[in-house]
Predict the structure.
Amino acid sequence: MPTYQITVKENLLSNEQKDKIADYITKTHCEITGAPNYYVQIIFHENNKRRYVAGKLSDSQIWIYGDIRSGRPVEKRCLLINKFVKGVSEIANIPTTDVWVFLNNLEGSDISEWGVILPESGKENEWFNSLSKELQGKLTALAK
């Protein structure tokens, strides 16, 4: 869980920039929330569809839609948003006004990953310890 879907105009970002953004968002999310990195997923959607804001063509924006587990304080959510805006604008070499972030809060019980219902925020260790040894090994390898 969290799943960050990033929508951009086709060819706005190089593969290197996408890699850096994915790494930055993953590290930032984990640093602020304390969640393990194997929870974080980043999906880029590139297309050549025309985008409009206020009825005017607006192709320079990067939209970041993040489904995250609920239970985090407003201050942490705002910190995530502000860091994403600043970091992504620097990596993409675009103004901060062109990075838009939307966070959607979901209960852990609304999500299944790795074949298991996710825990509430802050209960990751208990959840991890309840997993099969095989799955724990797989997640530990991802966390490195």
About this structure: The first helix runs from residue 15 to 33. The longest strand covers residues 62-69. The mean pLDDT is 92.
